Amino acid sequence: MTYKIMLACAGGFSTSMLVTQMKKAAKKRGIDITIDAVAESSLNNYNDLDIILLGPQVGHIKPELEKEFSIPIRVINQLDYGMMNGEKVLNEALDVLEKQGVGDDEKNK
Fold first, then answer.
1. Which domains are assigned to the chain?
2. Which residues does the UniProt record annotate as the domain PTS EIIB type-3 (predicted)?
């Protein structure tokens, strides 16, 4: 199973830098993952996601998105976001996915 993580911010630009760092961390660990970044206004164009991570500047839309999506939605820690700490953000997303049971079928093969 490939994890599908979407990051969203006001324009999709700052999160795209974080995506690069997250992909590097995933590659080092050999994790099969798809990570993309978009403007929060484009989220409705995507389905089949496992988790949505919001940039701190758009964290206020989390309750609205939780009504639209039936997947975990988290706001990225402001310090981790500012430091572009892709490894820590990836770890937190993976922790949420594991708690939700996403990817369990892959582990049991």
1. 3-100 (3.40.50.2300)
2. 2-103
